[in-house]
Structures are given as structure tokens and as C-alpha cells.
Design a protein that fits this description.
Layout (H helix, E strand, L loop, with lengths): L2 E5 L2 E4 L4 E8 L7 E7 L6 E6 L6 E3 L7 E6 L4 E6 L8 E8 L16 E2 L3 E6 L1
Parallel strand pairs: 2-11
Antiparallel strand pairs: 1-3, 3-8, 4-5, 4-9, 5-6, 7-8, 9-10, 9-11
Amino acid sequence: QVQLVESGGGLVQAGDSLRLSCTASGRTFSNYAMGWFRQAPGKEREFVAAISRTGTRTDYANSVKGRFTISRDNAKNTVYLQMTSLKPEETAVYYCGADFRLSETGLGYTLGAYNYWGQGTQVTVSS
């Protein structure tokens, strides 16, 4: 069992930056591929970014490429999402997910790829 806790959300203005954190507990963090998803009101949860177990591979949704950066610190059991140039349409609850089934270099792009989720952190971007 893995417990995930997101933090770092808040209210920012368009164009601002924000860094989200997701801290895991319960099992060996380096055994898990990690991902960030978001869910806006009335919309489905969507993929944002993913990182492999060792952090050697990352990938992003096209909408955030060049602006968001996912990283992880396995010594701190934490994955981060650095977000820059935020847009109002990116207002959403941001969730992190963890999966131990993916290979060492595997990335998860779908909800079904993850078997553990945090409770989410709200990000609100005002115009």
C-alpha cells in the first residue's frame, strides 16, 4: 500500500509559476513510476506528465510541453511538478498517481496505468 499526499496548490495569476509536490509513504518509492493528472470542473481527469522509476524518462501532454517540468527525488520520496506560464484554463485539481507495474523505464499515460492516487491539490489561475 502507498499513500500519496499532494501539496503546493493555490491561487495564482495567469503567467505565474507554481510547484506542486507529491510525497509518498508506505513502500519503496523508487519502485514506482509516477504521474500527474488534473481534473477541471465538469471535465474528465487528464494526463499532464509522467516520470519513470529512476527519473531517466519523462513525458508531457502537448498542452504543457515547454512549460511544465516533472522531477523526482527518490531520497525524499517526492515527485514534483514545476509549472510556469500558467493559464486560467489550467485551473483544476491536480492529482499524482503511482504505479509499481510499469517497467523501470516505463511511463503511464492513462488513469488505468496507476493503482494509487493522492487526494489532489487545487490550482486556481486567475486571469
